[in-house]
Specification:
The protein is an alpha/beta fold. It is built from nine helices and ten strands. α7 links the parallel β6 and β7. The longest helix has 14 residues.
Protein backbone atom coordinates (compact mmCIF):
# COMPACT_ATOMS: atom_id res chain seq x y z
CA UNK A 1 0.00 0.00 0.00
CA UNK A 2 1.47 3.30 -1.12
CA UNK A 3 1.80 5.66 1.86
CA UNK A 4 2.60 8.52 -0.47
CA UNK A 5 -0.73 8.50 -2.28
CA UNK A 6 -2.84 11.58 -3.00
CA UNK A 7 -6.52 10.78 -3.43
CA UNK A 8 -8.76 12.98 -5.57
CA UNK A 9 -12.43 12.18 -5.08
CA UNK A 10 -15.00 13.71 -7.41
CA UNK A 11 -15.27 14.72 -11.05
CA UNK A 12 -11.63 15.70 -11.55
CA UNK A 13 -12.05 16.21 -15.31
CA UNK A 14 -14.48 19.11 -14.92
CA UNK A 15 -13.11 22.39 -16.39
CA UNK A 16 -12.92 24.12 -13.01
CA UNK A 17 -10.79 21.33 -11.51
CA UNK A 18 -8.64 20.27 -14.48
CA UNK A 19 -6.02 23.06 -14.11
CA UNK A 20 -5.56 22.19 -10.44
CA UNK A 21 -5.30 18.43 -10.95
CA UNK A 22 -2.75 18.94 -13.72
CA UNK A 23 -0.58 21.07 -11.46
CA UNK A 24 -1.06 18.71 -8.51
CA UNK A 25 0.20 15.72 -10.52
CA UNK A 26 3.32 17.68 -11.45
CA UNK A 27 3.91 18.94 -7.90
CA UNK A 28 3.29 15.53 -6.36
CA UNK A 29 5.72 13.96 -8.78
CA UNK A 30 8.47 16.27 -7.51
CA UNK A 31 8.00 14.76 -4.04
CA UNK A 32 7.44 11.16 -5.10
CA UNK A 33 3.66 11.22 -4.55
CA UNK A 34 1.19 9.36 -6.76
CA UNK A 35 -2.31 10.69 -7.56
CA UNK A 36 -5.25 8.29 -7.63
CA UNK A 37 -8.80 9.16 -8.66
CA UNK A 38 -12.26 8.11 -7.51
CA UNK A 39 -15.47 9.59 -8.84
CA UNK A 40 -17.40 9.08 -5.58
CA UNK A 41 -16.72 8.89 -1.86
CA UNK A 42 -18.28 5.42 -1.69
CA UNK A 43 -15.79 4.16 -4.28
CA UNK A 44 -12.85 5.46 -2.20
CA UNK A 45 -14.37 3.83 0.89
CA UNK A 46 -14.35 0.45 -0.80
CA UNK A 47 -10.62 0.86 -1.33
CA UNK A 48 -10.20 1.71 2.38
CA UNK A 49 -8.64 5.06 1.54
CA UNK A 50 -5.58 3.31 0.01
CA UNK A 51 -3.38 4.57 2.85
CA UNK A 52 -3.61 8.11 1.48
CA UNK A 53 -1.27 10.82 2.70
CA UNK A 54 -3.55 13.58 1.42
CA UNK A 55 -7.18 13.63 0.25
CA UNK A 56 -8.99 16.14 -1.97
CA UNK A 57 -12.77 16.26 -2.21
CA UNK A 58 -13.64 17.97 -5.50
CA UNK A 59 -17.14 19.28 -4.84
CA UNK A 60 -18.93 20.25 -8.05
CA UNK A 61 -22.44 20.50 -6.59
CA UNK A 62 -23.91 21.19 -3.11
CA UNK A 63 -24.39 18.08 -1.01
CA UNK A 64 -21.99 15.93 -3.00
CA UNK A 65 -20.01 15.14 0.17
CA UNK A 66 -22.40 14.94 3.17
CA UNK A 67 -20.70 15.70 6.53
CA UNK A 68 -21.60 12.24 7.89
CA UNK A 69 -20.04 10.55 4.87
CA UNK A 70 -16.90 12.66 5.17
CA UNK A 71 -16.64 11.89 8.91
CA UNK A 72 -17.00 8.16 8.18
CA UNK A 73 -14.32 8.30 5.49
CA UNK A 74 -12.05 10.24 7.87
CA UNK A 75 -11.81 7.09 10.03
CA UNK A 76 -10.18 5.27 7.09
CA UNK A 77 -7.45 7.91 6.70
CA UNK A 78 -6.99 9.30 10.23
CA UNK A 79 -3.60 10.87 9.55
CA UNK A 80 -4.30 12.41 6.14
CA UNK A 81 -5.44 16.02 5.72
CA UNK A 82 -8.80 16.33 3.97
CA UNK A 83 -9.21 19.31 1.63
CA UNK A 84 -12.57 20.32 0.19
CA UNK A 85 -12.04 22.09 -3.13
CA UNK A 86 -15.35 23.80 -3.89
CA UNK A 87 -16.45 24.49 -7.46
CA UNK A 88 -18.43 27.46 -8.82
CA UNK A 89 -21.78 26.11 -7.56
CA UNK A 90 -20.45 25.54 -4.05
CA UNK A 91 -19.11 28.93 -3.02
CA UNK A 92 -19.86 29.89 0.56
CA UNK A 93 -20.60 27.94 3.73
CA UNK A 94 -24.30 28.01 2.88
CA UNK A 95 -23.61 25.68 -0.05
CA UNK A 96 -20.74 23.53 1.23
CA UNK A 97 -22.12 23.39 4.78
CA UNK A 98 -20.27 23.43 8.08
CA UNK A 99 -17.18 21.31 7.61
CA UNK A 100 -16.30 18.45 9.97
CA UNK A 101 -13.20 18.94 12.13
CA UNK A 102 -9.97 18.40 10.23
CA UNK A 103 -11.37 19.39 6.81
CA UNK A 104 -9.93 22.51 5.15
CA UNK A 105 -11.92 24.37 2.51
CA UNK A 106 -10.53 26.11 -0.57
CA UNK A 107 -12.42 27.44 -3.57
CA UNK A 108 -11.45 26.34 -7.06
CA UNK A 109 -10.17 29.81 -8.00
CA UNK A 110 -7.81 29.81 -4.98
CA UNK A 111 -5.64 26.93 -6.15
CA UNK A 112 -3.17 29.26 -7.85
CA UNK A 113 -3.20 32.00 -5.21
CA UNK A 114 -3.22 29.94 -2.00
CA UNK A 115 -3.55 26.17 -2.28
CA UNK A 116 -0.40 25.39 -4.27
CA UNK A 117 1.67 27.35 -1.77
CA UNK A 118 0.17 25.35 1.12
CA UNK A 119 0.81 22.10 -0.76
CA UNK A 120 4.48 22.94 -1.25
CA UNK A 121 4.82 23.63 2.48
CA UNK A 122 3.02 20.37 3.31
CA UNK A 123 5.33 18.29 1.15
CA UNK A 124 8.36 20.02 2.71
CA UNK A 125 7.00 19.20 6.20
CA UNK A 126 6.60 22.88 7.05
CA UNK A 127 3.71 24.39 9.08
CA UNK A 128 0.70 24.94 6.84
CA UNK A 129 -3.08 24.83 6.77
CA UNK A 130 -2.81 21.26 5.53
CA UNK A 131 -0.84 20.21 8.61
CA UNK A 132 -3.73 20.89 11.02
CA UNK A 133 -4.56 17.97 13.36
CA UNK A 134 -7.73 16.05 12.54
CA UNK A 135 -9.34 17.31 15.76
CA UNK A 136 -9.09 20.99 14.84
CA UNK A 137 -10.87 23.23 12.39
CA UNK A 138 -9.48 25.73 9.93
CA UNK A 139 -10.13 28.68 12.25
CA UNK A 140 -7.34 27.32 14.46
CA UNK A 141 -4.89 27.98 11.66
CA UNK A 142 -5.87 31.63 11.38
CA UNK A 143 -5.38 32.09 15.13
CA UNK A 144 -1.96 30.46 15.17
CA UNK A 145 -0.36 31.25 11.82
CA UNK A 146 2.17 33.97 11.25
CA UNK A 147 1.77 35.86 7.99
CA UNK A 148 5.09 37.66 7.95
CA UNK A 149 6.69 37.27 4.55
CA UNK A 150 10.43 37.33 3.97
CA UNK A 151 11.52 40.13 1.66
CA UNK A 152 11.13 39.03 -1.94
CA UNK A 153 14.31 39.02 -3.96
CA UNK A 154 14.48 41.68 -6.65
CA UNK A 155 17.26 41.68 -9.21
CA UNK A 156 17.80 43.44 -12.52
CA UNK A 157 16.29 41.73 -15.57
CA UNK A 158 19.64 40.76 -17.15
CA UNK A 159 20.25 38.33 -14.28
CA UNK A 160 17.06 36.38 -14.98
CA UNK A 161 17.51 32.60 -14.72
CA UNK A 162 15.38 29.77 -16.17
CA UNK A 163 13.79 28.89 -12.81
CA UNK A 164 12.46 32.40 -12.23
CA UNK A 165 8.86 33.62 -12.42
CA UNK A 166 7.72 36.71 -14.28
CA UNK A 167 4.67 38.90 -13.64
CA UNK A 168 3.41 41.29 -16.34
CA UNK A 169 0.88 43.88 -15.17
CA UNK A 170 0.56 47.58 -15.89
CA UNK A 171 -1.08 48.35 -12.57
CA UNK A 172 1.49 48.48 -9.71
CA UNK A 173 -0.93 47.08 -7.12
CA UNK A 174 -1.83 44.15 -9.33
CA UNK A 175 1.85 43.61 -10.10
CA UNK A 176 2.61 43.35 -6.39
CA UNK A 177 -0.34 41.06 -5.72
CA UNK A 178 0.48 38.63 -8.52
CA UNK A 179 4.11 38.59 -7.42
CA UNK A 180 2.90 37.46 -4.00
CA UNK A 181 0.99 34.64 -5.70
CA UNK A 182 4.08 33.41 -7.53
CA UNK A 183 5.87 30.36 -6.19
CA UNK A 184 7.92 30.69 -3.01
CA UNK A 185 10.47 28.40 -4.62
CA UNK A 186 11.67 30.86 -7.26
CA UNK A 187 12.40 34.60 -7.37
CA UNK A 188 10.01 36.77 -9.35
CA UNK A 189 10.59 39.59 -11.83
CA UNK A 190 7.81 42.18 -12.09
CA UNK A 191 7.27 43.76 -15.50
CA UNK A 192 5.06 46.66 -16.56
CA UNK A 193 4.34 45.13 -19.98
CA UNK A 194 4.39 41.78 -21.73
CA UNK A 195 6.81 43.35 -24.20
CA UNK A 196 9.44 43.27 -21.44
CA UNK A 197 9.27 39.46 -21.47
CA UNK A 198 11.06 39.42 -24.81
CA UNK A 199 14.04 41.24 -23.30
CA UNK A 200 14.76 38.56 -20.69
CA UNK A 201 17.96 36.58 -21.08
CA UNK A 202 16.28 33.27 -20.26
CA UNK A 203 12.69 31.96 -20.30
CA UNK A 204 10.88 32.18 -16.94
CA UNK A 205 9.50 29.05 -15.38
CA UNK A 206 6.05 30.64 -14.98
CA UNK A 207 4.55 33.79 -16.48
CA UNK A 208 1.59 35.51 -14.79
CA UNK A 209 -0.28 38.12 -16.86
CA UNK A 210 -2.95 40.61 -15.81
CA UNK A 211 -5.14 40.87 -18.91
CA UNK A 212 -6.77 44.26 -19.52
CA UNK A 213 -7.75 43.88 -23.19
CA UNK A 214 -10.23 41.68 -25.05
CA UNK A 215 -9.30 38.00 -25.20
CA UNK A 216 -9.59 37.90 -29.01
CA UNK A 217 -7.30 40.89 -29.29
CA UNK A 218 -4.67 39.31 -27.04
CA UNK A 219 -4.76 35.78 -28.50
CA UNK A 220 -2.26 36.41 -31.36
CA UNK A 221 0.17 37.96 -28.88
CA UNK A 222 -0.26 35.02 -26.51
CA UNK A 223 0.43 32.55 -29.31
CA UNK A 224 3.61 34.46 -30.07
CA UNK A 225 4.67 34.22 -26.43
CA UNK A 226 3.87 30.51 -26.05
CA UNK A 227 5.95 29.84 -29.15
CA UNK A 228 8.84 31.91 -27.81
CA UNK A 229 8.59 30.46 -24.27
CA UNK A 230 7.57 26.92 -25.17
CA UNK A 231 8.57 25.44 -21.79
CA UNK A 232 7.02 28.17 -19.63
CA UNK A 233 3.67 27.92 -17.87
CA UNK A 234 1.27 30.81 -18.45
CA UNK A 235 -1.39 31.99 -16.02
CA UNK A 236 -3.75 34.58 -17.51
CA UNK A 237 -5.87 36.56 -15.06
CA UNK A 238 -9.14 37.85 -16.54
CA UNK A 239 -12.05 39.70 -15.01
CA UNK A 240 -14.73 36.97 -14.63
CA UNK A 241 -13.50 34.74 -17.51
CA UNK A 242 -16.20 33.12 -19.62
CA UNK A 243 -16.03 29.52 -20.93
CA UNK A 244 -15.55 31.00 -24.41
CA UNK A 245 -12.49 32.98 -23.28
CA UNK A 246 -11.03 29.94 -21.54
CA UNK A 247 -11.55 27.82 -24.65
CA UNK A 248 -10.08 30.58 -26.82
CA UNK A 249 -6.84 30.70 -24.84
CA UNK A 250 -6.61 26.91 -24.89
CA UNK A 251 -5.79 27.38 -28.57
CA UNK A 252 -2.51 28.98 -27.51
CA UNK A 253 -1.22 25.79 -25.87
CA UNK A 254 -1.82 23.27 -23.12
CA UNK A 255 0.45 25.13 -20.69
CA UNK A 256 -1.97 28.08 -20.47
CA UNK A 257 -4.28 28.43 -17.45
CA UNK A 258 -7.04 31.05 -17.21
CA UNK A 259 -8.15 32.30 -13.77
CA UNK A 260 -10.40 35.06 -12.41
CA UNK A 261 -8.59 38.14 -11.17
CA UNK A 262 -7.99 38.02 -7.40
CA UNK A 263 -9.66 41.42 -7.07
CA UNK A 264 -11.48 43.56 -9.59
CA UNK A 265 -10.70 47.19 -8.77
CA UNK A 266 -7.36 48.24 -10.18
CA UNK A 267 -5.40 51.18 -8.85
CA UNK A 268 -5.41 52.83 -12.31
CA UNK A 269 -8.33 51.44 -14.36
CA UNK A 270 -7.00 53.11 -17.49
CA UNK A 271 -3.63 51.34 -17.25
CA UNK A 272 -2.84 48.71 -19.84
CA UNK A 273 0.15 46.45 -20.24
CA UNK A 274 -0.43 46.10 -23.96
Amino acid sequence: MNRNTILLIGENDRPEFEPFTRRLVALGGEFGAVCRYHTALSEAEREKGEGARLVFLLESRPGEFPPKGVARFRQLVPGAPLVLLAGPLCQGEGRTGRLPAGVTRFYFYEFETALLRELAKFFRHEPSRLALPATTNEEDFWREASFERPPRETVPLPRTEPNRNAVAAADPAMRELLADFASDEAPTDTLASVDDLFHLNAPPQRILIDLTVEAKEFLPRLKEMTARFSNSEFVIYIFAPTPEETALFAMAGERVTVLPKPFFRLTRPEASAY
